[in-house]
Amino acid sequence: MRNSRKASIFDYDWLSVLIFNLLVLIGIVSIYSATYQPQQTDILQSFYGKQTLWFAFSYVLILAVGFFPLKIIKNNASLYYLTGLLLLILVLIFGANINGNKSWFRLGSFSLQPSEFVKLATILGLAKLLTEPDFKITKAKNLLQAVVLILTPVFLILLQPDLGSAIVFLSLFLVLYRDGLPITYYLLAIFIAVLFILTIYFGQTKVLLTVASIFVLTNALIYLLYKKLFVWQTVLLLGIAVVTILGSSLVFNKVLKPHQRNRIEIVLHKKKDDKGTGYNLKQALIAIGSGGVYGQGLLKGTQTKGNYIPEQHTDWILTVVGEQWGFVGTSIVVLLYTLLLLRLIVLAERQKQKFSRILGYGLVSILFFHYALNTLMVIGLFPTIGIPLPFLSYGGSSLWAFTLMLFIFLKFDAHRIEDW
Amino acid sequence: MKQKAVIIGLLISLTSAVILGRLFYLQIIDTQYKSLALRNAVKKEYIIPERGYIYDRNHKLLVSNLPVYDVMVVPKQVKNFDTILFLKYTGLSKDALLKALQKAKKYSYNKASMVISKLYKNEVALLQEKIYKFPGFFIQRRAIRKYHTRSAANILGFIREVNEHELKKDPFYMPGDLIGKSGVEKSYEKTLRGKKGVKYFLTDKFNRKIGSYENGKYDTLAQVGKDLQLSIDINLQEFGDSLMKGKRGAIVAIEPQTGEILALVTAPSFPPSYLSGRNSSKNFNKLFRDKINKPLLDRGLQGEYPPGSPFKMLNGLIALQEGVINLQTYFVCNHGFKYGKRAHMFCHCGANGRRVRLPWAITKSCNTYFSKSYINVLNKYDTPEKGIDVWHNYLTRFGLGRYLNTDLPVGSKGLIPDSKFYNRYYGKGKWHATFTISNGIGQGEVLTTPIQLANITAAIANKGYFITPHVIKKIDNDTTHIKHLYFEKKQTGIDSIYFDDIINGMAAVYKTGTAQYSRLKDIELCGKTGTSENKTRINGKIVKLPDHSIFIAFGPKENPKIVVSVFVENGGYGATIAAPIATLMIEKYLKKKITRTDLLQRMFQTDLNNIYQMKNHEKQ
Q1: What are B303-323's pLDDT values in tens digits?
Q2: Minimal Cα distance from A178: which residue of B?
Q3: ipTM of the complex
Q4: Whole domain around residue A353: which residue ranges?
Q5: Which residues, including other chains, have CB under 8 Å from residue B120's CB and lie 6 or more apart?
Q6: Fewer Cβ within 10 Å of end Cβ, chain B: N or C?
Q7: HEC string of B429-489?
Q8: Number of CB pairs < 8 Å for A and B?
Q9: How far A228 CA sits from the closest chain B CA (Å)?
Q10: Structural domains in chain B plus CATH codes
Q11: Quick check: B40 and A368 CB within 8 A?
Q12: pTM score, two decimals?
């Protein structure tokens, strides 16, 4: 133990730390431009001043993680998970109501979003569950345990309601894939998702007929070529397809709220609503599109200056990068993320311990979903949903939660050869 | 196990590739967002330049600009305000304010509407100081025309807000811009209006200005409109106005060597300021609806009348040029002559059966002489068609029967009949020269405008050519941008040698002829009276009204400086009103003062309104 703590500073993966710092700095500059007001004198009252403060404090957290024994983290994983769930219940009771969402604890001028930290807690809980002796993901009982573990916070967060944060937890199924859950489940999920989109786009009848004829044709072809029939597989798959297609319209029309329906239709180009639900996206596309190759330069973006994009310093921060630094700027951000994620996979794979590997994949999954969904949303390839861009978007809770996640894993990685 | 890591890595990389591809498309390939961004955030604001001033030929300022102030309101920004105080500052009635606010709301909640228009500086001073007490209201400065003369409304014209048609036609204009609607304000609109400046602003999503765009890189400065110097002598113009008081008609004075119009008087008239200022719309409607006096009609340019006797000189000139008469040619006149079974041309030249020759025929205005000369011109050719077309061609070269192309936006062609005209009227080959004999004495079908009459007088004074009449003299003290047309000598096709006899005849009009009582002692003038008959129907009976009084003149005889044509509706015999007016105009211009005050007084006092009343009564 004593030994390991000494060596640790130099054993932290410098590339990940570097990318972390770069992303946060890009974020602070972007927040500065997005919320710049020439007459503002009190830096600590400004958004970029606060974010800088949060960034400074995240180093306190990093330091704290450095001194925190890994064993305690590992052994108390279930406790963190349960504390997380407790916080999610408490926030539903005591949380401040902001725009109809009960997602925040408010203590004076300070607010905290527990769902951000529950991500870390859930990863730890999942790692703990998956490293239990005799745990096999292929066993129905164990699979059910894992699914319940992931979906419980999802359920609680949906009660707030905060769809964006809830969806991110689904990324943890990637961890299960890495740990042995057969790919069939994922292909099936993709199959259902594609059918859902097709049904909304083309309508129930068309998709139903097309899918049915494809099934008949492929079966006929297979029979002609191999003189074989996959009767029960076909029936099962067809059954799933029919249920999905019929269920899609039902879910779409009855379960989703009108604004969610609008957002999906806008992304599918089935609807245009530049003044209403689609306003944010339209303005975001204008800002990003006007950036060109090199962008308009710091504080030069006309759309950013004119405050055309609501929530630009939080969820829509990429539009600032896009307008001011152009394609060069946005591709740097995308490449930094990609590099960080791939690097984290490499780190996860080199873990000796299953616990820390699951931790690594948990981090990769959550980070990937955040990055991918936020970016795809901003460029109009995914329905508008409230997901911040980790490290860049304004907000202390998000920054600290991801800092903790990243550095706890990096600490495990630094100590990977030791038997903690 | 490693394989699954690769698959997850590929999934991540693929997602990033899709994102990069989309970003590449949005930021580099699709250019629509750049223009959308500009449309979002960059707003243009125009700076309206000051309109050019207008001066007379002696550099006297005629038209300048006067700042006026409109009180505007944006209904959305209006909060509770002290209505009583507002009414006190503006002098508006409560009803008027409520009405204006209602109208503004109806027009737009976010856009500014006018509450009070065209307040003068002293009227708006109080409100301007306290405007902050009335949120939603603001004061907008603009300029209206200020006139330094009560005359020449027909020449100067007026400006109004552009209409939709003009907006569509010329992208220069935006709603609310001013445009010249008549006079030189219209014909020199592009010169006077200047060039608008443009300022680009960045605006935020609430359309508030947040700074200049690109540090004003694309901004342009406004260019002040150019000043016009007119050829009008405003003293002469005003003098003409005073002479025409109580009469209907026109006076046109031209400098023959240059074609510059010295005065263009039309009566009845109105002061130009009548169509500027607060009541301009109301006043315009009043003038427009006055179908009896037709004050908006420029009788000098648009009034078409039979020219009467002055036209005889043209017939004489054409006959001389065609060689059908010469100085020795005579016609016998015995109170006129018979030219058909029951057709008789009367004449009161007083020849009483004696031989009549040029230039006596002109002095005494002998109908016989000129109608016979006219018939001879037509009969020189095989057919009257050919003859009349030759005759028509000469007159066209004198600027008759067509637009003169002055630089004022209105005009009339008048009428000079040709073979087509008579063929249509009588049928081809079914008419003879004598059918058209009235043309010989300027009656019948012939119609001319007072400016055309002045122009032929100029051609006579110049002995054969004229320069198209115009009112422009200089643009920003420079003649380079004036149309070439206004320097061009237009030849009439009559040799200069033939003019002397005509001019001698005209000079004798002042010495022994009809205008001898108007003559000037020390300057030799040339003139010609004219009288054109007109009748009207009163209670179903045709009643002969006093004749239109016509006179043309120029002076001095040698090296003429001014030509004048005068037309007074129902003024009676040419010598009674038109001749004194023309002569007084010439005297005023050449000598700057009038010595014959008795004559002047007589002209001032002549009021023909009782005759016009008679006509009006019938029309109603």
Answers
A1: 998 898 899 999 999 999 999
A2: B4
A3: 0.95
A4: 1-40+273-420
A5: B66, B68, B69
A6: C
A7: CCCCHHHHHHHHHCCCCCEECHHHHHHHHHHHHCCCEEECCECEEEECCECCCCCHHHHCE
A8: 119
A9: 32
A10: 45-230 (3.90.1310.10), 234-619 (3.40.710.10)
A11: no
A12: 0.70
